[in-house]
């Protein structure tokens, strides 16, 4: 019984951090792949969160062939959780490879932001925002589904 209580109490902070519908997202600041800071504000309409390399590859595949500034024009922000990646690999290979992308990737190097938005690690989490409040939540498992959803967002 004590063990169960201890487990439940240890999970309580995770539940408290999860964002609910109609809740305002707390602002945060992350660096992108060029070490340029971005702060989440009320202008963002969609927040994409990839909690794994596989999920980030879905975003990349969905954006293939799109012009530079495609996400920014639609007020879409992409956050990639790279905290599991060894820092040396990230610094020497992964982040330089991301600099070839024609879209910004906000890098959550220390898992400060992505855990606020729980989702399966193999899917891309889509958080629909209005004036900083969460109004809808979706998960995408394929690049085709994600691409179709992005095309519905008006620039």
Question: What do you see in this structure?
Answer:
By secondary structure, the protein is of the alpha/beta class. The protein has one domain: Glutaredoxin. It contains 5 helices and 7 strands; from the N terminus they run H-E-E-E-H-H-E-H-E-E-E-H. Strands 2-1-5-4-3-6-7 form a 7-stranded mixed beta sheet. Strand 1 and strand 2 form a beta hairpin. Helix 2 packs across helix 5. The longest helix is centred in the first third of the chain and has 16 residues. The radius of gyration is 16 Å and the shape is globular. 25% of the residues are buried. The N terminus is likely disordered. This is FAD/FMN-containing dehydrogenase. Keywords: Signal. It comes from Pseudomonas shahriarae.
Please tag this protein with its features.
155 residues, globular, Glutaredoxin, 34% helix, alpha/beta, single chain
